[in-house]
Structure formats: structure tokens, C-alpha cells
Write a structure and sequence with these properties.
Radius of gyration: 32 Å
Strand content: 5-15%
Structural class: alpha/beta
CATH topology of the largest domain: Rossmann fold
Bound molecules: adenosine-5'-triphosphate, magnesium ion
CATH architecture of the largest domain: 3-Layer(aba) Sandwich
CATH class of the largest domain: Alpha Beta
Length: 466
């Protein structure tokens, strides 16, 4: 069945409106009429037709105003102007401004029908064209946003993401700072059914509790000083889309209770309100803390943890997927684009070696920043070792077992050597070293004392006796 096309007819002379309506309906068009510019603009903003046929001279808003309303409603909507001799000049100018055509009165039925047919066909073509372009853009965006990495640990993570993305499940993304948790959250969103809707992100660690609650759950007017009018929370505003709760581990116990309720009941009670509002949002959360440990310690609610942790995606640290470093370098250098003129940036072989060997405590973000800086300081179109930040250039070459390791070292010896190596790699920073080792700082302190390890930037081997 042929789809019906809608035409909006605008003229202050009802006689002309009637004649045209009968003519066009007879040809199978769906016709709406307006007797003035104001009414036409209102109809246009409500539901744009496929074609507008309007008189130019009307009291109040003219046909030119209708043309503008149509442009505002839909760039590609064709507008045909009907004009008497007196406003011919205006009509010609209007065509230059984007009107599809003008018909000079008096016109024959055949003329009107021919022009309507042509305009509607053009409209259908542009629509298809736009839809194609949009689809191409969507695909480009999706593939360009695909997280970079082909190492086995990273591929596992991406595969898991592909599996859970189309479900409505909550996903907890964990991982050290800079490993790409937000990148992963956006990737999940784009692969999901909600991918064409909005992605909202909120950093739960960046706002004081009351502000965070009002951002998440909304508030009603007068519920606190400064609440001058009702405001939807993100859980409501992100309706249809995805909400990414970053640094979820930073939320207070009170906020945790409210979040749990929101996830379980699929509704929120805005601050100061009595009635709940229902929500339709996919929730993704991220943390660089060990939430399971926080649950054990009692600082994170276990029930909320289990609600969030339906799936967990753990982003591997960059040092565990060194084969991805060259890929990431290539990706970032492309993004940094051209240097000076039109030469793409390259990396010297020895600089690449240094970049691969470095431990990257700040993960992908640190790599990205280092390259950005190197691109700026590099004098030509290639990045040399000298262009890299000193901490990266001068980091000790990682060797887990030190020079004089016994042939079959007991566990304690390996542990001692490894801790010493991490301490060196982290420039003696105990907090970061504890992070890398995945142990509590207090545990690290005990081990440092026990093994008599040397701490401090560039520290060499630890003392031999412990
Ligand atoms: N796999 C990847 N492919 C491409 N870019 C990446 C990848 N992982 C991370 N990045 C880039 O590294 C930077 C840090 O990523 P992101 O912000 O997602 O990390 P994060 O884990 O959320 O860090 P934080 O814990 O500090 O918030 C971003 O600029 C991001 O574009
Ligand atoms: Mg982040």
C-alpha cells in the first residue's frame, strides 16, 4: 500500500482552501488546513507534514513566516508558496531562502498536482538520505568508541560487555584509576537497546551528600534553601537512557539506602516529596575501590552491592596488558592528529620500548597524558625518548626476580623481591605501591618492616637481612 503523504494548506481565503483540499484529497493526500500563519505555525510545531502549500499574503503572519516555522520544525520540509502578481518579488526571494517553489496565481489543477508530487518525492528522498547518513554516523560513532585493546585480558572484558550490554542488568565496573571504566560504561550503553537515547554520568564522589541526593532523586520546591522550583533527579531525567554512577563507593550510608530503594522499586521519592515517581533507567556503576572489602568492613551496604554487582566487569590494569600499549599509542596519536603541518606523529623505536616497559600506575589515562605532552614538546613529527616525562624515561626497568635470585626461591624471597620492585616502580610511594600490590597500606608497612625494604624514589635493592 502506498503511504499517504500529508500536506498542510494555508490560505486566508477559505474558497481556495476548499478547492485545493478537494483536489489533493482526491489524489490520495492527507490534507490539513489553516486559515492563517499563526495556526499554521502551531500545526507545524505539533506534527510536521510532508509538504506545506501556503499563500504569501495573509493578515498577521505571512507565508514567509510560515516558511520560517517550517524550516524551524524540519530543515528538509518543502514549502511551496502561492503568490499573486503583487508579491512575486517576495516569492522569488523566498525561493532563494529555501522555499521549494512558487506557484503564480492563477494556476491550473495540473500545475498544483505536478508540483506537489515532485515536492513530496523530493522529500521522501531527502528523508531516506538523512536516515542513511544518520545510520552511517551511528555506526561510525559506535566503532570509533569501541575501547582499544586486543590483549586476551581485554578481549575477555569486551566480550563480557557485549554479552551483558543488551540486558537491562545493572553492571558494576571496577578497576584502578584510568583503566577506562567510563569508556566501558559508554560502550555498554551504546551496545544496549538504549544506545540511541542519552547517557548520563554523575560522579558520586564529587558532590556533598545533600547535593548528590537532590541531583539523583530530584527535589520539590521549598524542600531546602535554594530549592526554588521542582527539579527532576537524574534517575528520572535519564528516563529511557542510561545513568552511570561513577565512584559509587563514595556514597554515604543514607544515599546508599535510597539508591537501593530506587533500583529495587524502580521509583524514587524526590527530596521533600511524599509521592514516589517511577523511573525507567539502566544503571551502570563504577568504583576504583575494592567494594567487597568495603562490604566486609561495613562501609558499603551488602544489599546494594549485590544489586549493583549483578555483573561485574573488572578493567585490567595497563601493566597486565602490555601488548595493548602500541595499539593505544597509535589510537591516541591519531586522535592527537597532525603535528604542525600535515605529518602524522610517530614514535621512535626506543621511545616505544620505554613506553612498553613502564609500569603505568595511572593506566591508560597516564599514557594518554604522556603522549599529549610528548606531542607538544617534540620538535619534529616523531616522539623520541627525550620527549617523554622524566618519571617514565627514568623508571627502573622492571625485573621481578633480582639479579642474584636463588635457583628455587622460597615464597618469602619472591614476595620480598616483588614488593621491592613495585616500591621502586612507584618511586617509593607506599600508597600507590599498596594499590598496585592489591593489599592494604597497613599490610604493606608491616612487610616493609619485616623484610627491611628500602623505600624512597630510586631506592635500590632492599637490605639483605631482614
Ligand atoms: N580501552 C581504551 N581505549 C581508548 N581510550 C581509553 C581506553 N581506556 C581508557 N581510555 C582513555 O583513558 C582515559 C581514562 O579513561 P576513563 O576516564 O574511562 O578511566 P576511569 O577508569 O574512569 O578513571 P577514573 O577511575 O580515574 O575515573 C580517557 O581519556 C579515555 O578516553
Ligand atoms: Mg572515571
Amino acid at each position: 500500500m502506498k503511504p499517504t503523504h500529508k500536506i498542510l494548506l494555508v490560505d486566508d481565503e477559505t474558497g481556495i482552501l476548499d478547492t485545493l483540499r478537494i483536489l489533493l484529497t482526491g489524489e490520495g493526500y492527507e490534507v490539513a488546513t489553516a486559515t492563517g500563519g499563526e495556526e499554521a505555525c502551531r500545526l507545524l510545531s505539533e506534527a510536521p507534514p510532508d509538504l506545506v502549500l501556503t499563500d504569501i499574503r495573509m493578515p498577521g503572519k505571512t507565508g514567509i513566516d510560515v516558511l520560517r516555522c517550517a524550516r524551524a520544525a524540519d530543515e528538509a520540509l518543502p514549502v511551496v508558496l502561492m503568490t499573486a502578481q503583487a508579491s512575486l518579488q517576495t516569492a522569488v526571494r523566498a525561493v532563494n531562502e529555501g522555499a521549494y517553489y512558487y506557484l503564480q496565481k492563477p494556476f491550473s489543477n495540473d500545475e498544483v498536482l505536478a508540483i506537489c508530487k515532485r515536492a513530496v518525492e523530493a522529500r521522501v528522498l531527502t528523508n531516506e538520505n538523512h536516515e542513511l547518513k544518520r545510520e552511517i554516523k551511528r555506526r561510525d560513532q559506535r566503532s570509533s568508541r569501541e575501547p582499544v585493546g586486543r590483549s586476551s585480558s581485554f578481549r575477555r572484558v569486551v566480550e563480557l560487555a557485549r554479552t551483558v550490554a543488551p540486558t537491562e542488568s545493572t553492571v558494576l565496573i571496577s578497576g584502578e584509576s584510568g583503566t577506562g571504566k567510563e569508556v566501558m560504561a559508554r560502550f555498554l550503553h551504546e551496545l544496549s537497546e538504549r544506545g540511541d537515547r542519552d547517557f548520563f554520568s554523575i560522579n558520586c564522589g564529587a558532590l556533598p551528600e545533600t547535593l548528590l541526593e537532590s541531583e539523583l532523586f530530584g527535589h520539590v520546591e521549598g524542600s531546602f534553601t535554594g530549592a526554588v522550583k521542582d527539579k527532576d533527579g537524574l534517575l528520572v531525567a535519564a528516563g529511557g537512557g542510561t545513568l552511570f554512577l561513577d565512584e559509587i563507593g563514595e556514597t554515604s550510608p543514607a544515599t546508599q539506602v535510597k539508591l537501593l530503594r530506587a533500583i529495587q522499586e524502580r521509583e524514587v521519592i524526590p527530596v521533600g516529596a511524599t509521592r514516589p515517581v517511577s523511573i525507567d533507567v539502566r544503571i551502570l556503576a563504577a568504583t576504583n575501590r575494592d567494594l567487597e572489602e568495603e562490604v566486609r568492613r561495613g562501609s558499603f551496604r551488602s544489599d546494594l552491592f549485590y544489586r549493583l554487582n549483578v555483573f561485574q566487569i573488572e578493567m585490567p590494569p595497563l601493566r597486565d596488558r602490555k601488548t595493548d600499549i602500541p595499539l593505544l599509542i597509535d589510537h591516541f596519536l591519531r586522535r592527537l592528529g597532525v603535528h604542525g603541518e600535515s605529518h602524522p606523529l610517530e614514535v621512535h623505536e626506543d621511545a616505544l620500548q620505554v613506553l612498553i616497559e613502564y609500569a603505568w600506575p595511572g593506566n591508560v589515562r597516564e599514557l594518554e597524558n604522556a603522549l599529549e605532552r610528548a606531542a607538544i614538546v617534540s620538535l619534529d613529527s616523531s616522539i623520541a625518548v627525550e620527549d617523554l616525562p622524566a618519571r617514565i624515561r627514568e623508571a627502573p626497568t622492571p625485573r621481578i626476580v633480582c639479579d642474584a635470585a636463588p635457583a628455587n626461591p622460597p615464597m618469602e624471597v619472591v614476595e620480598r623481591a616483588y614488593i621491592q620492585w613495585v616500591l621502586n616502580a612507584e618511586g617509593g610511594n607506599k600508597t600507590r605501591a599498596a594499590d598496585v600490590l592489591g593489599i592494604d597500606p597497613s599490610t604493606l608497612y608491616r612487610k616493609i618492616n619485616r623484610y627491611g625494604l628500602a623505600v624512597g624514589a630510586g631506592a635500590g635493592e632492599g637490605k639483605t637481612d631482614g
